[in-house]
Amino acid sequence: MPDQPVTEPQDRREEAGLRRPLGVRSGAGSAAPALEGPPRETPRTREAVFELDDLTVSYGTKPAVRSVSFGIGMNEITALIGPSGCGKSTLIRCLNRMNDLIPTARVEGRVLYHGQDLYAKEVDAVEVRKRIGMVFQKPNPFPKSIYDNIAFGPRVLGMKGNMDEIVESALTHAALWDEVKDRLKTNAFGMSGGQQQRLCIARCLAVEPDVILMDEP
Amino acid sequence: MSAHAEAIGRATQERRAKDLAFRLAMLLCLGLAIGLLAVLLIDVAVDGAGSLSWDFVTSFTSISADQAGIQAALWGTIWLMGVCAVFIIPVGVGTAIYLEEYADDTKWWNRLVEVNIQNLAAVPSIVYGILGLAFLVRGPLSLGPVILAGGLTLGLLVLPVVIIAAREAIRAVPPSIREGSLALGATQWQTIWRQVLPAAVPGIATGVILALARAIGETAPLIVIGAATVVAFNPSGVNDFFTAMPIQIFDWISRPQTDTNDYRPLAAAGILLLMILLLAMNSVAIWLRNRYEQKW
């Protein structure tokens, strides 16, 4: 599936010290300038994965993110930092079209993914989310067994391969395998909050996305 | 003792008295409701317990009261409930899924549908009987007064109940579950079919059972569509004529009673049997809810 090198999950965690924090300054609401900044030209030799061009997102009439433009390079770990309520989640949710689910959300501007506008008419949001995975702020395991939580993604995507191996590999990469290998069939709701979140990360890794968006996981 | 203490004591006493009065008033309301039900139940039990036997369950109705039984009506009711369930589960759940997952609340036609479903739940059952008579028994479908027509009529009657229960069950599944599924690249239908519905099944099943429990006691629509009252055979398919338990009870009560041929104990026994069925169904519903309900 991946048509370009994918960052290995282990690398992501090792580099989780946020190698290239992106100083996006912002304020909430319409009074303060919301996530505003000039197009950031980072000296970069690598190909850009995302390019945001004058992105504005509003809920109803209230803008949550205004005129944001920047790029994210391949095989990089990019972090957005800002105060609570400044639009980090809103912005990140634009990158895999999760904002489609919020009826009042309106997205203006362009989000390019390898040069393709994610909000172009012919783009299928399901296809976008298949390639661009997401881990949410609050752990949201499915009310199923640990095994089925991981296996759900590969199953719905019709992925080939041994499911047991996929599950083990995903859980190992999320540093959860040793804790749960003896209770894969028990309900995921019985896990601790931290374990649940690692399960959600493993779930995301199992479908081998090209990009993983993490909303303060 | 200080003045403060006295004042506190006085005020407390007054308020306590009021508190107690309200508590007693509410208890009285409860007693009235439960008491009347208990009187009814005891009265029926006293009249019918003598006639409620295995012979009663396995005999057909007869011109002689001491040989009459409820078998045909019992099987008629079971068939009706089967047809009703087969109809209401897919249609009711499908409607609920559309309204909860797909419909855009801001569009007036969707709101119109919602308001109408609430209204339909309150329409008198006899109106559904007339509908069944006009469209199923006669009219376009012309099925005749058979099981299929009766089951579908009852289905139409309780469909709003199922839709409302299923919608509540679907709404109780938190949005984060849908987001989690969609973020993995699942389609909306995969999300509904594999995540939302399984999580909502206990609530939906409870709603379906309660809807069937309402349908099982309905008499008026079945009488209107022309269900038979004296049937001496069990239905063997959906195109057979039938009678049902409430109709059988109604028939027995409305016959001329004599000292030697008294159908009233039979009617009471029929009511008892119906109550037992209802109690069993409601118990299953409560058990389902407690056993499988998902705490989020």
Structural category of chain A: alpha/beta
Strand order of the largest sheet of chain A: 3-2-5-6
Helix content of chain B: over 70%
Low-pLDDT stretches of chain B: none
Number of strands of chain B: 0
Give the C-alpha Rg of chain A: 18 Å
Portion in beta strands of chain A? 15-25%
> What is the gyration radius of chain B calculated from CA atoms?
25 Å
**Strands of chain A, total number:** 8
Shape of chain B: flat
Which structural class do you get from the secondary structure elements of chain B? mainly alpha
Molecular structure report:
The complex is a heterodimer of chains A (217) and B (296). Chain A contains seven helices and eight strands, in the order H-E-E-E-E-H-E-E-H-E-H-H-H-H-E. Chain A has 217 residues and is an alpha/beta fold. In chain A, helix 4 (146-156) packs across helix 5, helix 4 (146-156) packs parallel to helix 7 and helix 5 crosses helix 7. Chain A is globular. Mean pLDDT of chain A is 80; it is low at 1-34. Chain B is mainly α. Chain B contains eleven helices and no strands. The longest helix of chain B is centred in the first third of the chain and has 46 residues, at 3-48. Chain B is flat. The N and C termini of chain B lie far apart (53 Å). Classes of the chains: A alpha/beta (217), B mainly alpha (296). Chain A binds chain B through residues 96, 98, 101, 103, 126-127, 129-131, 133-134, 136, 138, 140-144, 152-153, 156-157, 189, 200, 203-204, 207, 209, and chain B through 104, 106, 174-188, 190, 194-195, 198-199, 294-295.
